[in-house]
Amino acid sequence: QLQVVESGGGLVQPGGSLRLSCAVSGGTLDYYIIGWFRQAPGKEREGVSCVSIRDDGTYYTDSVKGRFFISRDNAKNTIYLQMNSLKPEDTAVYYCAAISIWTVKTAQDMCAITHRPGSWGQGAQVTVSS
Question: What's the chain look like in SS3?
Answer without folding.
Answer: CCEEEEECCEEECCCCCEEEEEEEECCCHHHEEEEEEEECCCCCCEEEEEEECCCCCEEECHHHCCCEEEEEEHHHCEEEEEECCCCHHHCEEEEEEEEECCCCCCHHHHHCCCCCCCEECCCEEEEECC
